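Allow me, if you will, to draw on your knowledge of protein folds for a short while. Thank you for your consideration; the sequence and its tokens are set out here:
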Amino acid sequence: MSEIHELTDDEADALYDRMARKHMGISGQEFLRRWDAGEWEGVDPDSVPGLVQLWIAMPLGRATDDD
């Protein structure tokens, strides 16, 4: 049986960044900046490739926001 590995804040941020680059071709921080600016407000999330994946995983990208 494998062990569960809890991500550090830095690991979570790096994972989110990789996801954003893979799904949308931008950094994780750029995605969050544009999300916070309302760029995808009112947009059907299924109409933008990668948007749903990054929305669901957003807590990973915000792991270091409280520091």
In short: Residues 9-61 form one domain. The chain has a mean pLDDT of 93. The helical segments are 9-24, 28-36, 51-56, 58-61.
